[in-house]
């Protein structure tokens, strides 16, 4: 209520009585303005018999209660203003000194009623440099009318953002700048206006993001290789990189939310390059590359969580089922599964226990959870971790020559009922149709067969203990015969 009292817009409409049609249009415009809370001074309403029309015009233009003056531009208005004839000519003589002399020039708003045969605005000389409101086209009238209202009440749709701080890298020669934040800001415009530039923009962002990796490097001192000291070094590196990780998540949240298609191979190649960087780092102690392992795992889980958030199950399936070309110690490149990106960092585990006194089942999991920032949530990240585990179990996705042979859901303990929604909701036929690309099946019967086979092969297997609980077997979560049996 207080805001309505504060804003009391009042306008005077200056126009030429060129045609009866124009006069009717001006009255319609005035009615629309009053209907939206803008008071209007208009000659047909306010100029009474016996009034001095020239005094009425001057008073209306100079009255401080008039917050805006709308000048309706048509051929007749432009001619009379330039020739200084008629009422328009008189108003022009009053208005033009104000336009050239007043500090608050935004009081005067030209409004285009018609254009000439070339599409040019009929504008008197003294208004040709002014920004106008265009109501000449019925197709855009409503949109531009709203912009006019905003101009009248000084509430533009595009507001100047608050002034930020100068980037620290400009003030400190020791810091290195990343362009990812600027690319993130630019991406909104590309998504709205340049869909053909989406893939090049993704590539540019990912290339720039990879340049951050060298700044994550650190060296373990030979004089102190204890877990507490080295663990703190890793934590400090990860904390310093947190804002850039958040930019990564925000970038792909924008992309996934937009619904625009893009080349999934850009992501596959990014993880290949990230893993290559880790493997090419020259290190003396294993801990000197553990931050890279954590980062790659965190980024992969973040993308999987975003894919679940926006129900892009084809993409999630591509991330899980694709083979990643990585370089092994012999120098040759081999194809490995996404399980390569699962990590549980021993140095972080020991650091939490010895230095911080943290009694956690998995310090790596604890750290992943503590670093979650919007637009991600704990529920999404845990769901992604569990989904990766159960899909890899069902599809027998592993790396036989990797020390990390299977994907282990270290975030399992952070879900109260330990049951991923994506799996248990497979009883719904609608849900199945959405998620079936994730299981590389076309029909519910195919998925039923896969689950039945998994159950027969694992009927004597013991569930994995994790803390005070155990990880449920897949067939305990979803009965094969119940797949797609409900709406």
Q: Please, how many domains? A: 2
Q: Give the overall form.
A: elongated
Ranges where pLDDT stays below 50 over 5 or more residues in a row are 1-5
Strand content: 5-15%
Question: Can you list the strand order of the major beta sheet?
Answer: 2-1-3-4-5
Number of strands: 9
What Rg is obtained from the alpha carbons, in whole angstroms?
A: 33 Å
Given the helix and strand composition, which structural class is it? alpha/beta
What does this structure look like?
It contains 22 helices and nine strands. With 487 residues, it is of the alpha/beta class. It folds into two domains: 151 residues, Toll/interleukin-1 receptor homology (TIR) domain (Rossmann fold); 199 residues. Strand 8 and strand 9 form a beta hairpin. Helix 5 packs across helix 6, helix 9 runs antiparallel to helix 10 and helix 13 runs antiparallel to helix 14. The two termini are 47 Å apart. The relative contact order is 0.06.
What key attributes describe this structure?
9 strands, elongated, Rossmann fold, 22 helices, disordered N terminus, alpha/beta, two-stranded antiparallel sheet, 7% strand, 487 residues
Topology, element by element:
Layout: H1 2-6, E1 10-14, H2 20-35, E2 39-41, H3 43-46, H4 53-62, E3 68-73, H5 75-83, H6 86-101, E4 108-112, E5 133-134, H7 141-152, H8 168-171, H9 180-193, H10 198-210, H11 227-240, H12 242-258, H13 265-280, H14 290-309, H15 313-321, E6 324-327, E7 333-336, H16 346-354, H17 363-370, H18 378-394, H19 421-424, H20 429-435, H21 444-457, E8 464-466, E9 469-471, H22 474-477
Parallel strand pairs: 1-2, 1-3, 3-4, 4-5
Antiparallel strand pairs: 6-7, 8-9
Helix pairs in contact: 4-6, 5-6, 9-10, 9-12, 10-13, 11-16, 12-14, 13-14, 14-15, 14-18
